[in-house]
Design brief:
Distance between the termini: 38 Å
Order of helices and strands: EHHEHEEHHEHEE
Strand content: 25-35%
């Protein structure tokens, strides 16, 4: 049996056309376990399951203080394989709105210090649209997507606490504040 871990997701709402485009790209280029969830930006990775109550409480506090906000996904990016992960990733990265996503991550990490221990590299907001076993396949997909790519806007409206494996949502917490973090 796999070790149960927690993930924290920022969930953007997209226009129906943009959501359909994202779902079709992810269905083509992401493994099946990635397409069970709607497109999202992961704020915290691989946290120990014993932290569920404290993470949920912190997310609720953050949501009370944070208003929904727009994030513009305007760059395609190929994340090459590494020693820690042999796969190649294709990301959409935000321009405007990126700092607000990073602020959510930093605020969470300030109160849940284990978040920093789970990172293999500095936090860099992104939405995964493809996972590949080799560089050539990733580059070919990127070339194909770039031909028709247009920046898209999502509105971050909710934070989710996810248990993995199984993609079980433990909490969905709407952003209801009046300001940004």
């Amino acid at each position: 049996m796999s070790k149960v871990e927690l993930y924290v997701l920022a969930n953007p709402q997209f226009t129906p056309d943009d959501l359909a485009w994202l779902k079709s790209i992810r269905a083509e280029y992401c493994p099946e376990d990635q397409t069970n969830l709607p497109p999202h930006i992961t704020l915290a990775f691989s946290l120990p399951a014993v932290l569920a109550d404290s993470v949920r409480a912190e997310l609720q506090e953050m949501a009370r203080q944070t208003a929904a906000f727009d994030v513009f996904l305007n760059r395609l990016f190929h994340e090459p394989a590494s020693r820690a992960d042999p796969r190649h990733y294709l990301f959409l990265k935000p321009g405007p709105g990126s700092a607000r996503v990073t602020n959510l991550h930093e605020s969470l990490a300030k109160h849940i210090p284990q978040i920093r221990n789970c990172l293999l590299k500095p936090f860099d907001p992104h939405l995964t649209i493809g996972i590949f076993a080799d560089e050539a396949a990733c580059e070919a997909a990127m070339d194909g997507i770039e031909a028709s790519f247009k920046p898209i806007c999502g509105r971050i409206v909710m934070l989710s606490l996810l248990e993995w494996p199984g993609d079980r949502i433990l909490a969905e917490i709407p952003l209801i504040g009046r300001s940004s973090l």
